[in-house]
Amino acid sequence: MTPYTLRFISKSDQQLFASIRLLVEHFPDGLSLGSDRRGRVIELSCHIITHALANLFPQLECVDGYFYRSFEHSWLLSREFALIDPYPVGIAGGPIMLRDNPFDAVRPSMFLYHKNKDMIKQVIAGIGKKEFQRAVWIVEQELRRLHVI
């Protein structure tokens, strides 16, 4: 069965989503991302993987903010109004994609995803700027390796 929503999501965004889904599904568990500025192990987060994916796919914008107004979160937006969440909060099953056209009066994304540019500053402050950038770089390199397979 083809979901009704796919009628409104471009073929190019569907292909991007398929690529991201494959990359996330094949991403290895336990990849070492180093330590934060306090010496704690950096865990893979939505912020790190989303920023890395945005570097890999420049046609996507990384957006930082909140999921359902209370969970710090990062996701991707396409130029053709697809919202791709590569690491959804509290959801098993992998990446999800929603239509996010701002001209649509009612769309689930407007209730679930809330942009806030300042949120990522808090995340980075907790990890350390160069430590966060290093973790994003490590993930991006692994995604590039997987992308050519």
| Shape label | globular
Largest sheet descriptor:
5 strands, antiparallel
| Rounded radius of gyration (Å) | 15 Å
Secondary-structure element series: HHEEEEHEHH
What structural category do the secondary elements indicate? alpha+beta
Distance between the termini: 29 Å
**Main sheet strand line-up:** 4-3-2-1-5
Oligomer: single chain
- In what range is the share of β-strand residues? 15-25%
Average pLDDT score: 94
Unreliable stretches, pLDDT < 50, 5 or more residues?
A: none
Helix content: 25-40%
Number of helices: 5
Give a count of the beta strands, DSSP E runs of length 2 or more. 5
How would you characterize this protein structure?
This protein has 149 residues and is an alpha+beta fold. It is built from 5 helices and 5 strands, in the order ααββββαβαα. It has a 5-stranded antiparallel beta sheet. α2 packs across α5. The radius of gyration is 15 Å and the shape is globular. The mean pLDDT is 94.
Structure described in brief:
The chain has helices at about 10-25, 45-55, 110, 120-125, 130-145, and strands at about 60-65, 70-80, 80-85, 95-100, 115.
